[in-house]
Amino acid sequence: MEIDNNTSNPQSNYNFGNDVQKNFQGVVLDINGAPVSGAAVTIGTATVTTNLKGFFTFKNASVKENFAHVKVTKAGFVNASRVLVPTNGMNRINIMMIPAATTSTISSGSSSTVSLPNGTKVKFDGSFKDANGNAYTGSVKVALFNLASSNPYLNELMPGSLLATNSGGNARVMETFGMVHVQLTGSSGQNLQIANGHTAEITVPIDASQTSSSPATIPLWSYNEQTGMWNEEGSATKVGNTYVGTVSHFSWWNCDAQFQQATMKVTVKNTAGQVLPNIKVTLKRASQTYETYGITDNMGMVSGIVPANEVLNLKVYDICNNVIYTSNVGPFPAGVITTIADITINPSASTSYTIQGNLKTCANTDVTDGYVILRNAAGTNYFNYLSVPVNANGSFTMSTYSCTSNPQFIYEGFDVANLQTTGEVTFTATTNTVNLGNITVCNSVSEFVSYKIDNQAVTYVLGSFNAQWSGLTSPTPNLPSKQLRINSVNPAGPYFSMTQNNMMGVAASFTTDYMFELSGAVITPSNGNLIVNISTFGVVGDYIDFTVNGTYTNTTGSHTFTATGHVKRDM
Fold this sequence. Notes:
By secondary structure, this protein is mainly beta. The protein contains 1 helix and 48 strands. Strands 30, 31, 33, 34, 35 and 37 form a 6-stranded antiparallel sheet that branches. Strands 39-38-48-47-46-43 form a 6-stranded antiparallel sheet, with no helix packed on it. A 5-stranded mixed barrel has the order 14-15-21-18-19. β46 and β47 form a beta hairpin. The two termini are 34 Å apart.
């Protein structure tokens, strides 16, 4: 969490639109591509937690018609976010989180410079304050990160989008020439900022590909985590192959050219007229050196904020990252939403596959409350997991891709109402359309957790869990002597995590030392009044059974909470 010093910016004239409800599904990875589990993902007033594979899902989240702001936080990482123009389908979101790693430790009261090997620098005059505005004296940990425009994960790493509000309150879309993030932490872990009336000097390298096109002066923009918008604050001057500017507070800072903004929408189909989800569509200005992109939803649509009044180059990439379509689009009128003609592609290097089927219960009736997860049997690319709900007749259809012929896929179907599963089933796609027919979902779910908040419907977390008991015989200082951790590991659907400290390896009841993270709440003894009853604590390979009952409070008030679990012990 960072101190917000960006409260005096003018309101934006961006057309946010009306309040609407939309669906979102995404994955959160670190900069090495590993899943970030246990991250809190917030859209509006709703919060869910990423599972062990970094996945999260929102259904009917309240957003604006033309603006959805997704925020992600986890201790040890820089706060992440994404802003998008939501579609009517399942909006896909890919986010990478940056570790809040200390670059250098400096001291208050004296000037100092913190730098990175690529020439990124911050010069401090030594004056700092804490979150309450009080002067801070002591050591200061500085975490410095530079995001270049040439970074292949620019879209996943940068906060928000390139939507901004200039000093006149006008909505703009930007072209970045480099970003920096600075996080200041005191000796006790408290957040710090530059003291009132003081400034720091930042030096931002210009990417080699942009040196010739970079202007002599460029606006500086700071990112506002509350609004999801960049705001114009001053300017930077070109010095050699860098931009140098003065700032009065720290968050993300961005050196950007600004343009009037428009909104473009398009649907991507194949030659048979089928919509294509999870397809990357990129855009760039003629002089721009990098591409920004969006991912088509399950209805084949992608939408985004684009520069107005100029011709843009559009490309479509297949799953193997080959360009399979290119054209020029625009110019688009400023402030207007334009839907262009459908794009028809014929994937060549990658092959499109449509997977269909019908889920049936043990009694051979339609599964009316269930979903199907699909993945490629080769590899574990978390960006390409698919999950779709069945309709009222138990039917499902999903489209996917492969870079090889006759690929193998793995699916698993779930009957939520009856706690049944198909288990993982491997099949080979020998044709472009695979109809799996009627699929009987008749295996008892070997592991499950169900929970209920207030009078809401019961939430079922089905599939695999990771249940581990530390069983420490020689307690480590500052750690609990015994700890039980239970986490759901399915790549889609609701999430559940339970931690019970001081668990001695036998069935028992607890009223303290617990923590629950689930879709919609985090509960600890500080805000909860729960009874955790572990009725069965089996050996490794056997089952742990538990119930939870009680109340908890959060920003929306007091809530009742009940849960039941039946999970296999892994350690």
